[in-house]
Amino acid sequence: MTIDEAIYQLKNLAFLSSESEYGKVEKALRMAIEALEKMKKGKWIERDDCWDGIYYECSVCKDSFTLIDGNPSDNNYNFCPSCGSYNGGEEDE
User: Which domain holds residue 58?
Assistant: First the structure.
């Protein structure tokens, strides 16, 4: 599920809860939607260093890291471990 799909689902969620609990649920949903809408989106940039080989850089924070095997998609790295941006597990070709 993408962030946009999650936002859509949360905005269209219907609860069968008691009247007293509805306010708490609504507040929690609004907070979740706001957090998702503010989430930074980036992508992995594949870099080649003649000394260390291939490494990956976050397009948002520019932090980089090396994987022992495969690329970020292969390793389910959908979020940058440094800044938390959603990178969708895709890298530049």
Answer: 40-93
Instruction: List beta partners, residue 45.
Output: 57
Residue range 17-27, pLDDT digits in tens? 566 667 777 77
Residue 53: which residues within 8 A CB-CB, separation 6 or more? 66
Residues 61 and 90 in one domain: yes
Per-residue pLDDT reduced to its tens digit, 28-41: 788 888 887 787 88
Helical (H) or strand (E) element with 4: helix 3-11
Task: Name the E strands within 20-80.
Answer: 44-49, 53-58, 64-65
